[in-house]
Write a structure and sequence with these properties.
Length: 290
């Protein structure tokens, strides 16, 4: 007994020494951040970058640079990705400051969930007189092939409000009430969080639906909604919703929201990534004015 304990103690001491020596080694950052920098991902692509990944950008009015995931294609289009849902690993029920600053994690292969942050989106989208186009990619639980493009058609400027229009952002006629479409339109709505209610509803849409979003009374889309594994969103319309494609009881599996100067939209057609055939697309003008 005594011998076996002595052996165990000796093994533990050895292990402790090993760990102690490991801890003395300086930390190494194994995440690759690419060298090119610019005002946004398009600027980075314009400078010759051809790899999607993590880059630092510094929009014109930004006090300091910050990290973004850039999706760059062979046509030289550089999309700045600001929202990613894929497995429910990040809770999107966050408060005003968290949506402002951003949350979740950026990864070099874009396989992590995050919201870049309203302040950063604002700095990117207001740095030029050229408006940005927003592209939304959605994937359902059946990998059902569907492709749809809504070309940008209008631009409206409203203070403290993003300009989102087109498709589900224009509301949806659910058939419950003649005013459904009007009251679920997101165009011109202010951003709301559970602690900052700017919606058009007596109650609090953001609290009720667990998301920061451009709530009206309340929504026809809510891509920051609650993540339901396997679309088990029965009875609640608080999932990841895009009502013009799937019903408000259907919660998406994956979403991406990304922006690019709209002048780039005609260059290439977005078909170069084969997996995009599994996505539903909408392209709209967006300008985040906070
Ligand atoms: Ca309210």
């Amino acid at each position: 007994m005594l011998t076996s304990n002595t052996i165990k103690i000796s093994q533990l001491k050895q292990k402790a020494n090993q760990l102690a020596s490991q801890c003395q080694e300086p930390c190494r950052d194994t995440v690759q951040i690419l060298e090119t920098t610019g005002r946004d991902c398009q600027d980075i692509a314009n400078k010759g970058a051809r790899h999607s990944g993590l880059y630092f950008i510094k929009p014109v009015k930004a006090k300091q640079q910050f990290l973004v995931y850039c999706e760059i294609d062979t046509f030289g289009n550089g999309w700045t990705v600001f929202q990613r849902r894929l497995d429910g690993s990040v809770d999107f029920k966050k408060n005003w400051v968290q949506y402002k600053e951003g949350f979740g994690h950026l990864s070099p292969d874009d396989q992590s969930e995050y919201w870049l942050g309203n302040e950063k989106i604002h700095l990117i989208t207001t740095q030029s007189t050229i408006p940005y186009a927003l592209r939304i990619e959605l994937e359902d639980w059946e990998n059902k092939k569907r492709y749809f493009t809504n070309e940008p058609s209008k631009k409206v400027n409203l203070q403290y409000t993003p300009v989102v229009s087109g498709d589900a952002f224009d509301g949806f006629d659910f058939g419950d009430d003649p005013s459904d479409k009007f009251f679920t339109s997101h165009n011109g709505m202010q951003f709301s969080t559970y602690d900052n209610d700017n919606d058009k509803y007596d109650g609090n849409c953001a609290e009720q639906d667990g998301a920061g979003w451009w709530m009206n009374r309340c929504h026809a889309s809510n891509l920051n909604g609650k993540y339901y594994q396997g679309n088990t969103c029965f009875g609640y319309d608080n999932g990841i919703i895009w009502a013009t494609w799937r019903s408000r009881w259907y919660s998406m599996k994956k979403t991406t929201m990304k922006i690019i100067p709209f002048t780039r939209l005609s260059i290439g057609d977005g078909h170069i990534f084969p997996e995009h055939h599994f996505y539903f697309y909408v392209s709209i003008f967006v300008q985040f004015l906070f």
